[in-house]
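Note to self: keep these together.
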Amino acid sequence: MRVLVAGSRGLIGTALVSALREAGHEVRRLVRGSGEYTWDPPSGRIDEAALKDVDGVVNLCGTPLIGRWSAARKQMIADSRIEPTEVLAEAIAEHRIPVLLNASGVHYYGDGGDAERDETAPRGEGFLAHLCEAWEAATAPAARAGARVVYLRTGLVLSRRGGLLGPLKPLFKLGLGGRIGSGRQYQAWISEQDEVGAIRFLLEHESVAGPVNLTGPEPVTNAEFTKALGRALHRPAPWWAPAAALKLALGEAADELALSSVRAVPSVLRRAGYRFTHSTVDEAMAAAR
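Structure:
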């Protein structure tokens, strides 16, 4: 396939481009500034050569969520996702590109407590839930033009190269790891290998469209997640971060990123026949340590 990837400089994008090229696909990287193919989403400009004879587009654009959310920060987070998606969706419609895989997140479901959330679950509440809804809706021009559109509702990606585990591993190696708040909130995780493998799978399987949870088959509580990371690094994790302290430091972001419970399960992937490389959090942690 000839695949155009936007957001190729991030953790997932870098790994995806390498994996696609190793599998024999031709990959075009859509970047801002200098690069193979350039674009400028705020102005709606995109290199027409990037779109010629493309079989599929993967859009992974989005600024990181970590940090305190001011009104300006929220706007930046939204603009970095919705604006590029709108530009790409219009271009896909114009050029009749058959496939768009667009990033989204399991935050779509909001705080669901202990209840499992598959792809049929309704949108939850909160800034991130509404953001994911708008992000997915921005793909509408591509869908109206007949493209197969997939929403990649990704969980916490576990990678040895950084991401969530980047700042956590040094703390755990020093014996300073521990649960967050009560530790009872569920965390939907996925290994980097399965994140990339699932995206490749979805590019090639024409029967799958709509929302797809990119999560491991066994979501765990934060307490279980913490113990698994401690086991992988052969360190105890006896500490805990009080919810009140996190809220004081991060405000609304603490509630939605660290303290909310998202027990998302990959029902669509499993029905489609995807085989996970890492089926348990212990396997994923061992691969990422």
